[in-house]
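Collaboration report, partner site 2.

Our partner group contributed sequences for two proteins of shared interest, and the home lab folded both. The records are reproduced in the order in which they were received, starting with the first partner submission.
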Amino acid sequence: MTEDPDGFADAARTRELQLANRLAASVAADEEFQTILRDAVENNRSSRQRLDAIEAEIRQAATTWPALDTPAGSRQFQQFLTAKTREIYRVVDDATKDSAHRSRLVETLTNHYKLGGDKD
């Protein structure tokens, strides 16, 4: 039986093209992952800054609130704290939703690696 040198060369070129495509897909997925990660870090930093600002407002208000030793002043301060609590919940909820969204994006990228770059 004779070997077909052109067949081997074609098979090698086909395999080389497949590997190049897989590498290109991996590079693209790596870049997407870096973007997701960079955005997640920035979002977490922003959330932390918002929480730090709320904390500073509460600390400042606690030391300077007018008439805090009166029933009316106490009630107003309690309303202020309730509003700040809602803000805190909103920041945490936004961060949780963002984290879940990014988790789904990373999961999709993981599948791209498993499938060699196929996006289906």
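Second partner submission, folded after the first:
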Amino acid sequence: MYHRTRIRLVATVAAAGICALGLTACDSGDSGDTVTDKPKAKASAPASAEATTDDKPAAKEPADPATPDVAKVGDTIALKGLEDGSKLDVTVVKVADPAKSSDEFSTPGSGKRFVGVQFKLVNTGTAAYSDSPGNGAKVTDTDGQQFQPTFADITAGPSMSSDVRLKPGAKALGWVVFEVPKGSKTDTVQFAMNSGMANQTGEWKLS
């Protein structure tokens, strides 16, 4: 009996140590990584005020189209981070393909081009968000090749900061630039919190 009790105690201590290290197996009961391409439903337009100015009942607004099954440019995906209360609404606002460098120092390599993706981040959680968002982004082409961000500024607009800190309710907007072969056709862009280490990854269709 003593031997069995000791084994259970050691196992419990070991599990607690793993959780203390912040490994994903102990994070909010999440048992594995997931990739979600389901966008949030967009808010419907408010009813017209003039429709209720007389005794007639207000006309019914036409039903909103169903939320698309796959997120695309302009859509928002709700994502969770590793820590409790860590949440973001992430929107792929625009895509610049090809993107043009804003200076003569940043140019794509031979046979390559810049592709810019503008992200909007809104802290919807209860915890402060602090990260380098570009670390959690990647672009995939139709052949399945994946490309990480590169350090470059483009004429489309300001780059996303490499040190974003957002209190709950705050937002950030900026471009993340990728360097891809000229012959590659971009297919999707992904984003995950915690510099790409979060269990949940958002995916948007580009083509």
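Feedback sent to the partner group on the second submission included the following. Residues 26 and 149 are 30 Å apart (CA to CA). The two ends are 63 Å apart (CA to CA).
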